[in-house]
Write the C-alpha cells for this entry.
Amino acid sequence: SADLYGRARWCGAYGGKLLGAGGGGFFLFCVEPVRMDGFISSIGAQCVRFGIDDTGSTIIIGEE
C-alpha cells in the first residue's frame, strides 16, 4: 500500500486515503481534474471515476 500511495503521489495525486483494508480495500486519491487522464494512464492500477454533488444519498444501483 505504501508503494501504491507513493506512485500515486508521483503520478499527480495530492493526497489519498486507504479505505476498507483487510478484505481488499481501496485507495481514494485526490487529483486535480486537469491531471486526471494522465494520472489514470500512469498509475498502473484499476481506477473508478466518481463525482461529488450536493443532493445527498441516492440509490443508484438496483433502481427499475
